[in-house]
Amino acid sequence: MFPDATAPAVTSVFTAVLTEGPLSRVALARRLGLSSAAVTKAARPLIELGYLEELAATERTGPGAGRPASPLTVRAGREFFVGVKITGDELIGVLCDLRAEVRASAHRRLVAADVEHVLAELAELVDDLLGSYRDRAHRLGLAVSGDVDQATGLVRYSPFLHWRDVPLGELAARSTGLTVTVENDVKALTTAEQWFGEGVGADSFALVTVGAGIGCGLVVNGRLVSGAHGVAGEIGHVGFDVDGPACHCGSRGCVEAVAGTDAIVGRAREVSGRPGLTLDDAVALARAGDAPLGAVFARAGTAIGAGIAAVANLVGPARIVVSGEGLSAYDLFEPHIRAGFQRQAFGAAADCPLSIRPLPFEEWARGAATVSIKALVAS
Amino acid sequence: MFPDATAPAVTSVFTAVLTEGPLSRVALARRLGLSSAAVTKAARPLIELGYLEELAATERTGPGAGRPASPLTVRAGREFFVGVKITGDELIGVLCDLRAEVRASAHRRLVAADVEHVLAELAELVDDLLGSYRDRAHRLGLAVSGDVDQATGLVRYSPFLHWRDVPLGELAARSTGLTVTVENDVKALTTAEQWFGEGVGADSFALVTVGAGIGCGLVVNGRLVSGAHGVAGEIGHVGFDVDGPACHCGSRGCVEAVAGTDAIVGRAREVSGRPGLTLDDAVALARAGDAPLGAVFARAGTAIGAGIAAVANLVGPARIVVSGEGLSAYDLFEPHIRAGFQRQAFGAAADCPLSIRPLPFEEWARGAATVSIKALVAS
DNA sequence: GCACAATAATTTCCTTCGTCAAGTATTGAT
DNA sequence: ATCAATACTTGACGAAGGAAATTATTGTGC
User: Fold this and answer.
1) What band does A6 get if pLDDT is binned at 50, 70 and 90?
2) Contact status of B232 with chain A (Cβ, < 8 Å)
3) The two domains A8-74 and A200-358 share their CATH topology (first three levels equal)
4) Partner of A365 for a Cys bridge, out of A85, B132, B173, B351, CB 3.0 to 4.6 A?
5) In whole angstroms, what is the distance from residue A256 CA to residue A269 CA?
């Protein structure tokens, strides 16, 4: 097992190697502000236990002379992790290695969202995924939308699942026999991006997800923001237009009331005069050049951009990743998101780089797996 | 002098006693997650150097029996600190004790904002304030609006002063002979609130200042938010009304474009038809029941509330303090700030307590002093 | 008044972690 | 072959904090 209740140096050496690729001991020492002796000592147990290994010295560093470095790298196959994103009608699962590379994936439709059914399906899904990795996988990460207490694995409230105070962590641990970590889905995805994606090395960054709802995960000073009252990252309910359409939250003109999927479909039906119009129809028509429908997406993108600008203005992240739950229409949004952002970002906040790209759907499950990796490392 | 390059326990014991009032060693141990032995050891040098002292055991704790605790408290008079807020036309200075209680205050009008003149006036002001405390004061904190690098004491850009890349820290250190800390004014005020005000004990909180501009200081996970690009807390440029009035930032309908002093005065002149109307006139008329002018303040308050809600939705602070640079019309704003906040705050974010109260003008200078206290403690 | 329980604070000893400084290892250059 | 340069390792040491015993100081039950 991983060195337990371990010295801070061991954790920081391992996370640095894990997230910032192969690094020599000297480089680690510089980066972490430790002596190289401390790095040597911290690395030893990690190598002995098979979590790290020395890479064959490849590229020479420095001016030329000197002993070549033997960079440390993680042995990705040392341990495996299952991650499952739980939605109201589907379980999406992946099996990842220590470096969060997906080795296998699978999903299952849910016919109901009651806890028993979900747990039964989850157990089967996990069993399928484990396959030949069974003996080298001990941890399961679960990602659920809504209010989740990651410390206890309690799902306080999940609107899409209609769950309230479900001790999901314990239940899943019992039914799978694995060590379980539960986290909010957006936070899980944010963690994945922080450790293995574009957030690597950034002290602060934000991840925005666009879909039915519009959410946001926030990392500030290197730590995930949780919100004292259980609410954080609710970019969907930042105001955009006081006089805009009513939002389900009771206000008007929230970003989500303009740019959420429902809002877009509703507005598209209005402007097209076709009450049966679907999102896909609207996307197709807008792509084909339908001006009124194009304007609907433009307005939505502008609203999202303004919401993102609010994040940039308030917390000033080093970079922002914008993605979607299968954001198929991303080509329609992107320019307007950028324009809305530029318009509303103040001063140097406008310099904040924006990455707008659709994430594969499995990415959410990978986020769940990442959370379980993090739980192992920072235990 | 204060124990230097000191063990983390010493710093945390001192800050805990400083901000959370008298505490027994056992209470400190519990609160800080240390053994009581460690607290005893950490407290000793602080007592020897005169920064802490034992309070006569006052109230019995626990069920009754047992040795009474002798709580530790800071010796406020051990050391004194000067804090000066620098504005475009005035220096406001205070002299504070270690507990940031104001012992003396003074101010000076500036006839010009060039660096030389400000430094000369500053030196005189500091000299005045030091008075009989001269031998027990070694630190000066300066608060300046704009982009300030706290670490180096460099004022990168201050729009009101028309300063750019002024090494204010060094210059003021030379002219006063004190150890100088420079900080952005809103951040300084936020630090004051975090250490000695309503932010005490909160892991995260926000301070919003209403005035010519609308600013915000943010503490998340116990640390001040700085912004990777030098921008953070720009609540004034959060969007409120896409179709609202043009803002000096280039966008439309920013909170500041609706609720900044200039915006209010402009709008008040419009609705009243009196081009010479001042802010005080508008306040007086609104208080007297002038409906159109009342609506101007109402709308401004609503916009501020919406901006505050954006903060609550995004970072979820434990509490929010709203104040102003001499926010005289605060009675006109308050109900609408609250209403705007409630309207736009999502879910549990609406539970975030809002304190709306005008701060005495000296408070800004006290913030500057607090920053220098913090610099001493966390050196 | 006297044991004694209860709580606070201190002391002593010990572990742990990380640094320092010296040494070993491995390369290219002369 | 020697030397400079760089990477890494080792072992002695010191600082910080913990565990447990000890001392200090109270109230309570008798």
Assistant:
1) confident
2) yes
3) no
4) A85
5) 17
| DSSP 3-state of B363 | helix
**Residue B112, CB-side half-sphere exposure with 13 Å CA sphere:** 6
Q: Which of B136, B133, B157 is nearest to B147 (CA)?
A: B157
Token digits for A218? 């926030």
Residue B36 CB lies within 7 Å of the nucleic strand C: yes
User: CATH code for A200-358?
Assistant: 3.30.420.40
Answer yes or no: pTM beyond 0.85: yes
pLDDT band at residue A5 using 50, 70 and 90 as cut-offs: low
Position with higher pLDDT, A360 vs A257: A257
SS3 state at A141: strand
Domains of chain B, by residue range, sit at 8-74, 79-191+363-377, 201-356
Spatial neighbors of A113 by CB under 8 A, at least 6 apart, are A88, A89, A160, A161, A162, A163
Work out the average pLDDT over A158-162. 92
Residues of chain B found within 8 Å of residue A232, distances taken between Cβ atoms: 313-316
Report the alpha-carbon distance of residue B315 to residue A193 in Å, rounded: 19
Q: What token pair was written down for B161?
A: 């002063």
Q: At residue B326, does pLDDT exceed 80?
A: no
What's the half-sphere exposure (Cβ side, CA atoms, 13 Å) at B265? 12
- CATH architecture of the domain B201-356 equals 2-Layer Sandwich (3.30)
Provide the CATH topology of domain B8-74: Arc Repressor Mutant, subunit A (1.10.10)
In this predicted structure, the answer to whether residue A327 has a pLDDT above a threshold of 80 is no
Q: What is the DSSP string of A176-193?
A: H-SEEEEEEHHHHHHHHH
Our CA angle for A77, A82, A87, nearest 5°, is 155
Q: Which of residues 61-80 of A touch strand D (CB under 7 A)?
A: 61-63, 65-71
Task: Decide if pLDDT at A62 tops 70.
Answer: no
Q: How far is the CA of A41 from the C1' of C26 (A)?
A: 21
- Count of CB atoms within 10 A of residue A179's CB? 17
Distances from the Cα of A251 to the Cα of A94, A254, A257, A310, B347, angstroms: 38, 7, 9, 18, 11
- pLDDT category at A55 given cuts 50, 70, 90 is confident
CB atoms within 10 A of CB B134: 11
Closest chain A C-alpha to B197 CA, distance in angstroms: 18
Long-range contacts of A120-123, Cβ-Cβ distance < 8 Å, separation of 24 or more: A120/A175, A121/A91, A122/A84, A122/A86, A122/A91, A122/A172, A122/A175, A122/A176, A123/A175, A123/A176
Q: Cα–Cα distance between A93 and B203 in angstroms, integer?
A: 35
DSSP strand E in A110-254: where? 137-144, 147-149, 154-158, 163-166, 179-184, 205-210, 214-220, 223-224
Tell which CATH classification among 3.40.50.720, 3.30.420.40, 3.30.420.10, 3.65.10.10 matches the domain A79-191+363-377. Answer: 3.30.420.40
Report residues 22-41 of B contacting strand D, contact meaning Cβ closer than 7 Å: 33-38, 41
Strand A319-324 to A205-210 pairing: parallel
Q: Rg for chain A (alpha carbons), in Å?
A: 22
